[in-house]
């Protein structure tokens, strides 16, 4: 377990950064009604940030590790699969950007689906990759975990605060307040 501390810290760093990705996108949407620009305008600078951080960070890390800068021959898998991974990451980013910006910044709904879904997709992919191995034993806890992830996504999306409570007049203070469907921070049909 001691050797896992650094990977766990990096994974937590990823969760922190990606968890704040949605709220940062929510701040990138147009506040002018009607919008004067497309909700995809921030995506260009998301791409610029990816490009700069990935290339500069990758080159620095390669240099620190004493790696070569070759991508041919035996190094072609890094080029080919790295490009595929980058395409998947960029496609995921545009889907996430679309979901957050089109939902008017409703990250409380979008982010649990994204990250709970990602964990489940990874588990299903690993299962399909190794299921033909006759020695593979799948614990039923895997399926229970996926069910709990789905339940967790629903609970987190439903119970995360969706904006400040509506202000009520003194005469209405004793009556329960229901959110309007036009509230951009409240999912459709939400009453909390």
The major β-sheet equals: none
Quickly count the helices: 5
Distance between the termini: 42 Å
**How many structural domains does the protein architecture include?**
2
Overall residue-averaged pLDDT value:
81
Global morphology: globular
Helix content class:
55-70%
- Helix/strand order: HHHHH
Q: Give the strand tally.
A: 0
Q: Any idea what the radius of gyration is?
A: 22 Å
Helix/strand/pairing class, anyone?
mainly alpha
Which ranges are low-confidence, i.e. pLDDT below 50, for 5 or more consecutive residues?
183-187
Percent strand equals under 5%
Q: Any key phrases for this structure?
A:
192 residues; mainly alpha; 2 domains; 5 helices; 0% strand; globular
Layout of secondary structure:
Elements (H helix, E strand, L loop, with lengths): L4 H23 L13 H24 L11 H27 L4 H24 L9 H20 L33
Helix pairs in contact: 1-3, 2-3, 4-5
Describe the structure.
The protein folds into two domains: 17-105, no CATH class; 106-161 and 180-187. The protein is globular, with a radius of gyration of 22 Å. The chain has five helices and no strands. The two termini are 42 Å apart. α2 packs antiparallel against α3. With 192 residues, the chain is mostly helical. Helix content is 61%, strand content 0%.
Please give a quick description of this structure:
The chain has two domains: about 15-105, no CATH class; about 105-160 and about 180-185.
């Amino acid at each position: 377990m001691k050797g896992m501390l650094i990977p766990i810290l990096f994974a937590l760093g990823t969760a922190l950064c990606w968890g704040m990705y949605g709220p940062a996108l929510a701040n990138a949407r147009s506040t002018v009604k009607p919008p004067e620009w497309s909700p995809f305008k921030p995506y260009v600078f998301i791409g610029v940030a990816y490009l700069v951080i990935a290339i500069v960070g990758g080159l620095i890390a390669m240099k620190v590790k004493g790696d070569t800068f070759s991508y041919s021959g035996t190094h072609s898998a890094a080029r080919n699969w790295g490009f595929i991974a980058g395409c998947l990451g960029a496609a995921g980013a545009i889907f996430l950007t679309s979901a957050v910006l089109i939902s008017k910044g409703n990250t409380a709904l979008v982010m649990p689906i994204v990250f709970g879904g990602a964990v489940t997709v990874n588990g299903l992919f690993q299962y399909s990759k190794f299921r033909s191995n006759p020695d593979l034993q799948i614990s039923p806890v895997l399926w229970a975990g996926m069910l709990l992830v789905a339940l967790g996504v629903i609970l987190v999306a439903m119970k995360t605060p969706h904006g400040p409570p509506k202000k009520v007049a003194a005469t209405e203070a004793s009556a329960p307040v229901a959110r309007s469907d036009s509230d951009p921070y409240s999912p459709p049909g939400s009453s909390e």
